[in-house]
Amino acid sequence: MTRRIDGWLLFSSLFLLFLGWLMVTSASMEIAGSRYGNPFFFSIRHGIYLVMGLGLGLLVALVPIRWWYDNSFALLLTAFLLLIAVLLPGIGREVNGSSRWISLGIVNLQASELAKLFMVVYLSGYLVRRLDEVREHWSGFMKPLAVMGFMGLLLIMEPDYGATVVILGSMLGMLFLSGVGMKRFITLMLSTIAMAGFIALLQPYRMKRLTTYFDPWAAQFDSGYQLTQALIAFGRGGWDGLGLGNSVQKLFYLPEAHTDFVFAILAEELGLFGALITLFVYGLLIYRMFVIARKAGEHKLLFHCYVAFGLALVIAAQTFINIGVNTGLLPTKGLTLPFMSYGGSSLLISCVMVAICLRIDQETRHKVDLYEQKRAKYAQRYNR
């Protein structure tokens, strides 16, 4: 019998979760003390989210992957209803000009986080059912694109441009991995890039972010303030950092230090070495998810394969974008760092994604065991 769990995936996810709690605590103490009179306000809430995420992950790991397949359309419909609900007055909660949350008391549910998961599940089921049509005909290729386009429209209306990019990018990756023809894929890629550019030009604040991206220091105290302060944090960190808790930029210089820019505070306090170790662990986590997907595909578990690939792409895309924004590689965009940034919905869904991959790994190993047992029985009969 083989072991029942991917230890490296479990280790890397737990490492990032607890490192994230540590960094959120460090990055938020000053602002929490000033705003709420309790320096551990955000730390305590994040700890509660972490415990909830671990508990939810344990429950999800018990759910057979077949359940996700059978309910893929219902989950997609739920995602659309939530994305519509956040746009309705009295239901959606507006923060910093964006209506992305539904208040559930202890946690604000961010609809786009659920949409990422449910879209992966839906598209995986669609690819299993219509794989030949997707590979050979434009009709099979365009149907999921219409679904993604409608979801993207709802996200832009919130607005949540970052989630739109993550979902569309991850879904395009899934279509590419399914073996779609290069002609159709390249046409789709060019169309998506053109549409993204057009959307960026529609709103003046998005265009301002793009121009600031090329020279943030020219608008150091205006639209480039957040990025320049993040870059200063990286510069202060040097090779080995200022030491845990000794960040200067978190002292009201860098906005959203415990959410979107927690990686900049990590680099300032733990230095280049700490940042590289963190990147290595993210790479390990994503790599193990791809390995699980590949093994599932090798054993003809196509839905398992596509789900694991899709979840890996979502985490990889969101991690790349967040760290790219922190380092100035990409234009500034509000997007959490999976497993680490403060935020209940992001943390819970990250835990669920890992739990699903662990379940996929378990079911794949179980199928391998059954195959090995049957082969051993046939070998015994043949030897007799």
TrEMBL record:
One of its GO terms (cellular component) is plasma membrane. Pathway: Cell wall biogenesis; peptidoglycan biosynthesis. One of its GO terms (molecular function) is lipid-linked peptidoglycan transporter activity. The chain crosses the membrane at residues 47-65, 72-91, 111-128, 140-157, 163-180, 185-205, 270-291, 303-325, 337-358. It is found in: Cell inner membrane; Cell membrane. It comes from the Bacteria. It catalyses: [GlcNAc-(1->4)-Mur2Ac(oyl-L-Ala-gamma-D-Glu-L-Lys-D-Ala-D-Ala)](n)-di-trans,octa-cis-undecaprenyl diphosphate + beta-D-GlcNAc-(1->4)-Mur2Ac(oyl-L-Ala-gamma-D-Glu-L-Lys-D-Ala-D-Ala)-di-trans,octa-cis-undecaprenyl diphosphate = [GlcNAc-(1->4)-Mur2Ac(oyl-L-Ala-gamma-D-Glu-L-Lys-D-Ala-D-Ala)](n+1)-di-trans,octa-cis-undecaprenyl diphosphate + di-trans,octa-cis-undecaprenyl diphosphate + H(+). GO terms for biological process: cell wall organization; FtsZ-dependent cytokinesis; peptidoglycan biosynthetic process; regulation of cell shape. InterPro entries: Cell_cycle_FtsW-rel_CS, FtsW, FtsW/RodA. Keywords: Cell cycle, Cell division, Cell inner membrane, Cell membrane, Cell shape, Cell wall biogenesis/degradation, Glycosyltransferase, Membrane, Peptidoglycan synthesis, Transferase, Transmembrane, Transmembrane helix. Belongs to the SEDS family. FtsW subfamily. Peptidoglycan polymerase that is essential for cell division. NCBIfam families: ftsW. This is Probable peptidoglycan glycosyltransferase FtsW.
